Design the sequence.
């Protein structure tokens, strides 16, 4: 019965383990993030810049209300709303539809630089964020193998932001607003999913490595206790 119960618990844990898509917000998260962009481009094309701005803001508000009604996590919706609001404000100030994407372009450059800098100073953000969220401390930094894995994961995230900046900046300069919207959507969740796979690999690699080191430490301490145990105490 015990073995059966253990097996059932393991199966339950496996079922509850979030997939890469779920960690990114699921299919709904992908749709929610894409709607304001698509609405803006379509409204701007057929109605003009200002209607496009208001339609994008309206869709962001509608998504936030929908998440509230469905009792879903509000943090992604609120963040998305503020992102759309900032993009809309820049488009209004520049008087250009492509200005809607300017904030995201330069944000990608900043994020990529931060991730790259964290590797240079030996505090790879992939490892820092993961271990802070899970309360596992900084022991991973003392192990070169674990730190290397998190370096690779952090560089993968930096590469995502770098690719977004390079491609979207070029499209911005060439005034390809429609393709810019497509690139923003296509280079969002899909690329994040690929980078997250690398992060998952780094986490599992580090966890296994640290477990092996802990087991070796415990075994060594037990061996030392046996070696130096007093014969009198045994008697």
Sequence:
């Amino acid at each position: 019965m015990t073995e059966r119960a253990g097996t059932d618990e393991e199966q339950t844990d496996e079922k509850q383990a979030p997939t890469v898509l779920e960690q990114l917000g699921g299919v709904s998260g992908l749709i929610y993030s894409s709607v304001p962009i698509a609405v803006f481009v379509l409204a701007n094309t057929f109605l003009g810049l200002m209607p496009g701005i208001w339609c994008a803001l309206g869709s962001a508000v509608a998504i936030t209300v929908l998440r509230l009604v469905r009792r879903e996590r509000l943090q992604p919706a609120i963040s998305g709303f503020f992102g759309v609001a900032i993009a809309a404000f820049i488009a209004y100030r520049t008087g250009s539809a492509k200005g809607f994407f300017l904030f995201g372009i330069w944000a990608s450059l900043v994020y990529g630089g931060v991730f790259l800098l964290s590797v240079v100073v030996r505090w790879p953000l992939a490892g820092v964020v993961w271990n802070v969220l899970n309360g596992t401390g900084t022991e991973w930094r003392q192990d070169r193998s674990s730190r290397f894995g998190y370096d690779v994961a952090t560089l993968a995230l930096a590469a995502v932001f770098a690719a977004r900046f390079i491609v979207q900046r070029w499209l911005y300069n060439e005034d390809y607003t429609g393709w810019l919207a497509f690139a923003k959507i296509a280079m969002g969740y899909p690329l994040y999913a690929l980078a997250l796979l690398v992060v998952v690999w780094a986490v599992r690699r580090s966890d296994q490595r640290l477990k092996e080191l802990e087991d070796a430490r415990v075994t060594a301490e037990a061996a030392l206790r046996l070696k130096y145990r007093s014969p009198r105490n045994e008697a």
In short: The chain has two domains: 21-95, 100-213. Residues 100-213 form one domain. Residues 189-227 form the longest helix (39 residues).
